[in-house]
Design a protein that fits this description.
This protein has 335 residues and is α+β, with helices and mostly antiparallel strands. It is built from eight helices and six strands. It has helices at 2-25, 28-52, 61-109, 115-119, 122-128, 168-176, 223-287, 301-334; strands at 131-132, 136-142, 147-149, 182-189, 195-204, 210-217. Strands 1, 2, 3, 4, 5 and 6 form a six-stranded antiparallel beta sheet that branches. Strand 1 (131-132) and strand 2 (136-142) form a beta hairpin. The two termini are 85 Å apart.
Length: 335
């Protein structure tokens, strides 16, 4: 563990040393540009990250808006689906109660209908089997679970308890409604293998041993919720498209601003460094013996002060050399 820490420390030390050496090799203008441009670039990157990038627990504004829209859509769909399912249950129950009442009235008006004549009565069959929702229906069985009327002729005359192995939940709902009004859910497997929930409500016919059951897929009533979900999906797609376009526009603006900013920084740094470079050239010429060079540099206070210092140095050197030359000529003349 200690060796790994030493290796890591040595690596960072080497990186730091290498970076310092590279920085020392840069000119003053490059350092000035880096010192000004890099912090601004970092600020732009941070703003971009806040707007468009999610990192760990930090959620971008884009993701925040998308998640809020998604949560709003999910909440709306859940609430709408629950309300519509409840409404569907009420519709199914109302249809079962309506058919039970119709059968009760019909039997009161037809007292001779019993046994086989009851089962074979076409008018009673029309009353007993009615549509519920889009694909549902009503059916009639007795209090033992023997079916009398059904949309599927193969079911007529069979004991519905025979479906206990295939549809155990259906039989539970069936038994619950043999003596009193009751309803419940059970799963139904379609031909394509898809499992969908159905709701059934049973109502005994007053004064008889008949029971009316109304059933259909509960999701038929929740289709508006699916429409809401589809609309939310479209809104999310539109939101993503708008945000993507705005991101591209933002990126173009940022790049243009950075380019303009880099140009301004370069021009500013050049204007700041140019007097220093001129003074450096003057100092080089003075060091090479050109004492007649003119030191005429305008700039900031510090640069002007440096220029005056170099000018005084040039004047002093020229004066000293002239005195030395004069003294030497005087000595030569005397000799």
């Amino acid at each position: 563990m200690i060796d790994k820490q030493k290796q890591r420390s040595g690596f960072f030390h080497r990186m730091k040393t290498s970076l310092r050496q590279r920085m020392n090799q840069l000119g003053l203008q490059e350092k000035l540009m880096i010192g000004i441009f890099v912090p601004i670039l970092v600020a732009f990157l941070i703003i971009t990250a806040l707007l468009f990038v999610s990192v760990g627990p930090f959620v971008s504004i884009r993701a925040l808006g998308s998640d809020s829209l998604k949560e709003l859509g999910s909440a709306s769909v859940r609430e709408s689906a629950a309300s519509l399912n409840k409404l569907g249950e009420q519709i199914i129950q109302a249809r079962a109660e309506s058919v039970a009442k119709q059968i009760e009235i019909y039997l009161e008006l037809s007292p001779g209908l019993t046994g086989a004549s009851l089962i074979n009565d076409p008018r009673l069959k029309e009353i007993a089997v009615q549509r519920v929702g889009e694909t549902g229906y009503t059916a009639v069985h007795n209090d033992k679970g023997i079916n009398y009327f059904h949309v599927n002729p193969k079911i007529v005359g069979t004991d519905l308890h025979g479906l206990a192995n295939k549809l155990p939940d259906f039989v539970k709902v069936l038994d619950a409604g043999l003596r009193k009004p009751a309803g419940g859910y059970y799963d139904w497997t379609d031909v394509d293998g898809k499992v969908r929930p159905k709701y059934m409500f049973s109502v005994p016919v007053e004064g008889t041993n008949l029971v009316v059951a109304a059933t259909t897929y509960i999701d038929e009533f929740g289709k508006p919720a699916g429409t809401i979900l589809s609309k939310v999906g479209q809104m999310q797609e539109a939101y993503s498209t708008r945000y993507r376009n705005r991101f591209l526009l933002f990126l173009v603006i940022v790049l243009a601003n950075l380019g303009a900013l880099l140009s301004v920084i370069y021009a500013y740094s050049s204007s700041a460094i140019r007097p220093i470079r001129l003074l450096s050239d003057v100092a080089d010429r003075i060091s090479m013996g050109d004492l007649d060079v003119t030191v005429n540099v305008e700039g900031e206070v510090e640069v002007a002060r440096l220029a005056r210092s170099i000018e005084r140095m040039r004047t002093s050197m020229k004066t000293a050399i002239e005195r030395f030359e004069g003294t030497r000529r005087h000595v030569v003349v005397r000799e």
